[in-house]
Recover the amino acids of this structure.
């Protein structure tokens, strides 16, 4: 899952080296934290959150095969 988010985010942004994904595993769910460069944040979120929603849909499709839940959090650096 982590590699999938990393790949998708790197394809979307202008600065692929700044993409960081951290995975935290729970009993039945995983939390993925995505960090990108500040100027690339809009590219990952998309207009009205469409791109972020699409990434979450892909993740949930993959996770449903393994009977897990996945939460994607896009972290904004201050």
């Amino acid at each position: 899952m982590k590699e999938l988010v990393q790949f998708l985010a790197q394809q979307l942004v202008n600065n692929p080296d700044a993409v960081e994904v951290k995975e935290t595993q729970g009993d039945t769910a995983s939390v993925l934290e995505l960090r990108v460069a500040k100027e690339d944040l809009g590219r990952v979120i998309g207009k009205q959150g469409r791109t972020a929603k699409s990434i979450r849909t892909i993740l949930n499709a993959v996770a449903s095969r393994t009977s897990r839940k996945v939460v994607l959090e896009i972290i904004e650096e201050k």
In short: The first helix runs from residue 2 to 12. The mean pLDDT is 93. Residues 47 and 53 are 10 Å apart (CA to CA). Residues 2-75 form a domain with the GMP Synthetase; Chain A, domain 3 fold (CATH 3.30.300.20).
